[in-house]
Amino acid sequence: MSQGLVADVIVIGAGIIGAACARALAQRGLKVLVLDAGWHGATAAGMGHLLVLDDNAAELALSQYSLQRWRELAPALPEGCAWRNNGTLWLAANAEEMAVAHSKYLNLLAHGEACELIGHATLRQREPELREGLEGGLLIKGDGILYAPAAARWMLDAANIRQQRARVSEVDGHRVRLDDGRWLSAEAVVLANGIQATELCPELPIEPKKGHLLITDRYPATVTHTLVELGYVTSAHNASGPSVACNIQPRPTGQLFIGASRQFGSLDPQVEGWMLAKMLKRAVDYMPGLAQLNGIRAWTGFRAASPDGLPLVGQHPQRQGLWLAVGHEGLGVTTAPATADLLVAQLFNETSPLAPQAYLPQRFLGEPVYA
Amino acid sequence: MNEITDLLIIGAGPAGMAAALAAAPSGARIVLLDDNPLPGGQIWRDGPQANLPGKARRLRDQLRACANVRCHAGTRVIACATDKTLLVEDAERGWQITYDRLILCTGARELLLPFPGWTLPGVTGAGGLQALIKGGLPVRGERLVIAGSGPLLLASAATAKQHGAQVLRIAEQASRANVLGFATQLPRWPGKFFQSFSLFDHHYRTDTHVLEALGRERLEGVRLQQQGKTIELACDRLACGFGLIPNTQLGQVLGCALEGRALAVDAWQATSRREHYAAGECTGFGGSELALVEGAIAGHAAVGHTAAAQRLWSRRARWQGFAQALNKAFALDARLKTLARADTLVCRCEDVSYGELAGHENWREAKLASRCGMGACQGRVCGAALEHLFGWTTPTPRPPFSPARIGSLLSLEETPPT
Amino acid sequence: MPEVFLDGRPLSVANGTSVAAALALGADGCSRTSISGQRRAPLCGMGICQECRVMIDGYRRLACQTVCRDGMQVQTLP
């Protein structure tokens, strides 16, 4: 480490992305300083759903690779991370959605993903709480769930990683200014602070996408797999207005975690009753018995969304010394290990374990201006 | 389903009932809500083993006779639907209530501090035991230790004795000087003075606090620090509460300012939010007499009867004096902050221990790291304890304001944003 | 005198008796088991602490805030 540098790498953001990046860098022997303002972003609020998504090839490659890395990491995770490999069961409400399930099934099989198409009778056997009349579903067996705040904390608790509570008010390539006026320098700075990234780099095409969540009291053994409606793919991702989709996750505690909603253009963290109700109604449509259960907490979070639904991972093409790991939207927890691996490979100029082009920041920010 | 009212009163304890009765002659439509099975709050909690004072019965009868007062028992407020519309639910259904004016009479709850063994079956709050006995809890022949702080200990002991319990000890943490100092002032309020005689118990000890609740599967005994000595008493129940703290959650959600730990009110019992009033223990602990007069003032003020409200100011001042004397005498000793050991649970819903919590900077950090406060009580028990132990303030609650059926929450969809 | 069923066992109680009291009259007074395996019983007696959560006629409710009704099915939480 050169004179005057506080670390080899400064990472801004101690959420799951920052934590994964810091860990990967530390494991390479680098001294890492992680700065976090203490505001608790998407990692604290989100569902911790680990899933493969195949809206496009790049998304599938990223999520599949990353989920495999989580599975490798799982035995080392402490119990508080609540890792479970309980699979995702995509629900088809009608023949049209079942056709989507079928083509997903073929695509995922072709990519080596263990999955199973399930007809309507079997569906009710597997998940008796689901309403009658669903067409069927697709079970993706490798998917799972994780309590991300604990995982992030565990990742940051390592030799070579120092954490500091600080707010960064300015970034200038490989150095940052804290809000107390001090400048800190490193060999590189990694921006991994979710929706706050645009405060430091207004040129980033990151939009906050508000989501509501609710968790129930403990009702063990009600649901086995994470249940997501296939309408999610069509309605939620493609809508521009506020939208909801059924997403019911059984927590190891026996609580049911209910999502999902999406709203653009709001930074108001308040729970909006009408939106919460809309989301709950959608979930109750799929699981009528939910109406009888008690919700004990509701909250909101903001996903950092990029225009093409893929994160920005790599060098900032205009600001030398600054690296980006932002824009993960609803796949932050899933793709954290992959993000870290992509970043490290680029930092060390090594062969990437995953083709990096689709995630490079220059696709939005323009070609690099420096060598 | 939507209910519309001119005046909504939350809480049907002494303050809420007094407010309703004060406002009723105006002819305004009044809705009175309470989350207990019957009106009366805690001090006038009714049940098969309750001994409702005459005054309480009279107020209840008077309320029933008011054609313009509708009382919903067993009903809780679970969300704000829109401006001046609340979502409420009872055992059967959820519905919305739209109001023009609101009076918060949400009362107080006991401060329950963690100490080793406090999670054992057989350990309850002091007011908690009294409430349970009123609801029919059998205590005949059981050996009781009552501990903590405040006159509630004596009231609870009296109820227990009336139902055949054997009170072994009443352990008041306040000093002898403080309690005597308070007792000598009682003649200022003759009613309380005479009441104190009936509550006197020769097992009462000042400068005494609980150290540990003993037992494996359930309570078998308690260890006390009694006037400098450590003693152990075998017993069947420990009823321990450290005074009362105001229930301000709904007030905070509605934007009412706090003063200290209570809802701030002016001479008209008006909060910082227009058309929203508060009365009773939620504005500061002071006993039922103070709650009654505050409730009446709020009721009069809420329907614009300012002269009637003003006529009660001097009575309120009298009882405020009592409240001040009370709060001063029974202030909590600093040693009560160090009863918990590292493995003593603080968050009972999520089983988070003291050792997991100490060292965090604030409530939010601790919550995220340990899940403390993420359980069904929504931090009402552990949050109050941690505020006392570490000074951590808890944030304004989000909906649902208590565990609520998802089916009830669905009706919030009827109020999309304007 | 209403008759309630506590984990299947019948118990007759006085009118107005709370389910919390019924648990003590007819069983060991416990309502649930905590996540670390401790049996718990009502603590605050007034609907705040959530220790007395039980199932009543298929719904999760607080025993201390619920009055026994004839035929009520009460299930303590394992």
Write structural notes for this entry.
The complex is a heterotrimer of chains A (371), B (418) and C (78). With 371 residues, chain A is an alpha/beta fold. Helices cover 30% and strands 28% of the residues of chain A. Chain A is built from eleven helices and 19 strands. In chain A, strands 5-6-4-14-15-16-13-17 form an eight-stranded mixed beta sheet. In chain A, strands 8-2-1-12-19-18 form a six-stranded mixed beta sheet, covered by helices on one side. In chain A, helix 1 runs parallel beside helix 6, helix 1 packs parallel to helix 10 and helix 3 crosses helix 10. Chain B is α/β, with parallel strands linked by helices. Helix content of chain B is 31%, strand content 25%. In chain B, helix 1 crosses helix 2 and helix 8 packs antiparallel against helix 10. The radius of gyration of chain B is 21 Å and the shape is globular. Chain C has 78 residues and is mostly beta strands. Chain C has one domain: Ubiquitin-like (UB roll) (Roll), CATH 3.10.20.30. In chain C, strand 3 and strand 4 form a beta hairpin. In chain C, 54% of the residues are buried. Chains in contact: A-B, A-C, B-C. Strand 17 of chain A pairs antiparallel with strand 22 of chain B.
